[in-house]
Specification:
Elements: E1 2-6, E2 15-19, E3 29-39, H1 41-49, E4 64-72, E5 84-88, E6 102-106, E7 111-112, H2 119-124, H3 126-139, E8 147-150, H4 156-167, E9 171-176, H5 182-187, E10 192-195, H6 201-208, E11 214-219, H7 224-228, E12 233-241, H8 252-256, E13 260-263, H9 268-272, H10 275-293, E14 301-306, H11 310-318, E15 325-329
Parallel strand pairs: 8-9, 8-11, 9-10, 11-12, 12-13, 14-15
Antiparallel strand pairs: 1-2, 3-4, 3-6, 3-15, 4-5, 5-7
Length: 332
C-alpha cells in the first residue's frame, strides 16, 4: 500500500510517499481502507521534534481517519465488512497512523461514520470533537445558561467548541483575529464576536458580562493569551487550556480570583493505554455523529490535499490562522 512515511524529525520534506506492507487485523481489530485523514497541529509538532517512540522509525503519523471496513478479525462483533467508520487512533509513533491507504484499529475505538457527511469531513472531525467535548463538558463542567469565552473560534477546535457549547445551552462569545472570520463564527451560533486585533478581549468580555467575567474560558491558543485571560473569568470560574502553560506564567490573578484551572489533552488515553477512556472517546464520536446527521453539528474543511502532498498540507497548517480543518484524500 501507499503511505506517507516520516523518515526523521525535521521540515515537511521528511514526509515521503512510499510503498509499505498492508497491515493485517488482529482478533478484535478491523482493517480500514482509508478514504481521508485529518491533519492536526500534533502531526506537525511530532514531525518537527520526533514522535513519542523515537526507536520506531520511520513512522506513519496522522491520528484522524475515516474509511470503509475491508476485513475484520475473528473476534470482531461491532462492525461488518462495508461499514463506514471514523476515529482518532494511532499516529503518535507506535501504532500506525492514518497517512496511508489502509490501517487497523481495535473495534472498541472506532465509531460509525455520520451518514450525512463526506469522508473528508468525517476524517477532519475526531480529534477536535473529542478535545472540545472533554474541555467543555468534562473539564469545564459547562452547564445550560453558562457564559463561555472560546478563543480562536474559527479554528479547528474552536469552530466545533462553539457548536458543542450551544448544544449544551450555553451563551457563547468567541475571539477571532480577522474580520473575514466574523461571519463564519456567527453562522455557527456564537452570541458575540470579539476581534482581538481591534479590541481588548478581556475588557470586551467584562463589558459583555456586566463586569463579572465569563463562567468558563476555553483557551485554544496558549502562550501569553492563557495568563492574559485570567481577569476575563469570573471569581470561582473555570479556565481550560489545551496548551502547556509557560513556565513563566504568573498565577497571581488566577489565585486571587480562585479560578479552577484544567488541562486538556485528548491524547492521554492513547499515550497511557487507558482502554476505558479510549472507549469513552468512541462514544463521544457516536453522539456527535447523531448530531451531525440531524444537522445540529458540522465540520468545516477548508483545504483538501492528495495523500502525496502531505508536506504541503503541513506547510499550510504551520502558516497559522486557519479556518476549520485540513484533510488528506486517498485515491478511491
Amino acid at each position: 500500500m501507499k503511505a506517507v512515511l516520516m523518515t526523521g524529525a525535521g521540515n515537511p520534506e521528511v514526509l515521503q510517499l512510499q510503498e509499505v506492507p498492508k497491515p493485517f487485523p488482529q482478533a478484535t481489530e478491523i482493517l480500514v481502507k482509508l478514504k481521508a485523514a485529518g491533519v492536526n497541529p500534533i502531526d506537525t509538532k511530532l514531525r518537527k521534534r520526533g514522535t513519542f517512540y523515537p526507536d520506531k522509525m520511520p513512522a506513519i503519523i496522522g491520528c484522524d481517519g475515516a474509511g470503509v471496513v475491508e476485513a475484520i478479525g475473528a473476534g470482531v462483533t461491532k462492525f461488518r465488512v462495508g461499514d463506514e467508520v471514523y476515529f482518532c487512533n494511532g499516529g503518535l509513533g507506535f501504532h500506525q497512523g492514518n497517512y496511508a491507504e489502509y490501517t487497523t484499529i481495535d473495534e472498541k475505538f472506532a465509531a460509525q461514520k455520520p451518514a450525512s457527511i463526506s469522508f473528508a469531513e468525517a476524517a477532519a472531525a475526531p480529534l477536535v470533537l473529542i478535545t472540545a467535548w472533554e474541555a467543555l463538558y468534562d473539564r469545564g463542567r459547562l452547564a445550560p445558561g453558562d457564559k463561555v469565552l472560546i478563543h480562536a473560534g474559527a479554528g479547528g477546535v474552536g469552530h466545533v467548541a462553539i457548536q458543542l457549547a450551544k448544544l449544551k445551552g450555553a451563551i457563547v462569545v468567541t475571539t477571532v483575529r480577522s474580520p473575514d472570520k466574523i461571519s463564519f463564527v456567527g453562522e455557527l451560533g456564537t452570541d458575540k464576536v470579539i476581534n482581538s486585533q481591534e479590541s481588548d478581549f478581556v475588557q470586551a468580555a467584562l463589558n459583555w458580562t456586566n463586569g463579572e467575567g465569563v463562567d468558563l474560558l476555553f483557551d485554544t491558543i496558549g502562550g501569553e493569551i492563557f495568563s492574559q485571560s485570567f481577569p476575563a473569568v469570573r471569581v470561582y470560574g473555570d479556565i481550560v487550556t489545551i496548551l502547556e502553560p509557560d513556565v513563566n506564567t504568573s498565577w497571581k490573578v488566577a489565585r486571587n480570583r480562585n479560578l479552577r484551572i484544567s488541562l486538556e489533552l485528548m491524547l492521554t488515553p492513547m499515550l497511557q493505554g487507558i482502554v476505558e477512556a479510549q472507549q469513552y472517546q468512541a462514544e463521544i464520536l457516536k453522539q456527535c455523529a447523531s448530531w451531525m446527521d440531524k444537522g445540529e453539528l458540522k465540520i468545516h474543511v477548508s483545504h483538501e490535499f492528495p495523500l502525496q502532498d502531505a508536506a504541503k498540507a503541513h506547510q499550510l497548517l504551520e502558516n497559522g490562522s486557519m479556518t476549520g480543518k485540513i484533510v488528506l484524500l486517498m485515491e478511491s
